[in-house]
Amino acid sequence: QVQLVESGGGLVQPGGSLRLSCAASGSIFNKYAFGWYRQAPGKQRELVATVTKSGATNYADSVKGRFTISGDFTQNTVSLQMNSLKPEDTAVYYCNARTALDVNYWGKGTLVTVSS
Predict the structure, then answer these.
(1) pLDDT tens for residues 58-107?
(2) Beta strands in 1-116 (DSSP E)
(3) CA distances from 82 to 30, 46, 86, 90, 105 (A)
């Protein structure tokens, strides 16, 4: 059974940095991409960033230039370096693993709160 476990969330002041990590256990066949998504209170879950096995990355416009995703498809880990954090980045962040057959696995989420 595949499990994704996130870590690294917490409270940070505006302008600060956090690094989220996610480790996947179990066998994920035909891994295609890892990603981070977030859901703020009262809002739908949205894409933050993805990285494919070939190394291609994609970012939401709102985080471009501030967040960096990196994935290790051998170790089944993915991280998200978040810099210059803003209050609007406050959300529960979810780790995602997607296969080439579009099967998705999700973590339970980690809360990031940006507040002074």
Answers:
(1) 999 999 999 999 999 999 999 999 999 999 999 999 999 999 999 999 99
(2) 3-7, 10-12, 18-25, 31-39, 46-52, 57-59, 67-72, 77-82, 91-99, 104-106, 110-114
(3) 28, 16, 10, 12, 22
